[in-house]
Amino acid sequence: MPTIDDFEALALRSGTVLRAEPNEAARHPSIKLWIDFGELGELQSSAKITDRYTSADLIGRQVVAVTGFEPMRIAGFRSDVLVLGAMEDGQVVLLNIDDPVPPGSVIA
Question: So what's the pLDDT on residue 17?
Fold first, then answer.
């Protein structure tokens, strides 16, 4: 069972999508994202969000992500963060930030 120490090792941060393109090698349709997290730098994610979003929809969009994971490989692509969303009818609806915040802002 995870502890509070496990949770505190991770951080929820805002990021701004700089680049997005289909992850055509993935088993499930997904999009490769390059995200600016301010002082954390540019991190990557492969997100299964193609039911609601295209790559073009995501450029410049602010997202909420969990940082602090060990990077994973998804179809040969390094994924550093987990972009968060709510599930609706089996589709991911990305979490939304009401007003622009600096990339890398801590989510409280």
Answer: 98
Task: Give 37's pLDDT tier (boundaries 50, 70, 90).
Answer: very high
Closest to 26 measured CA to CA, from 47, 51, 52, 57? 47
What residue type is assigned to position 96 of the chain?
N
Sequence letter at residue 63: V
Contact 70, 94 (CB under 8 A): no
pLDDT, residue 7, reads 79
Rounded-to-integer distance, Cα 54 and Cα 13, Å = 22
Domains recognised in the chain with CATH numbers: 4-94 (2.40.50.140)
- Contact between 66 and 10 under an 8 Å Cβ cutoff? The reply is yes
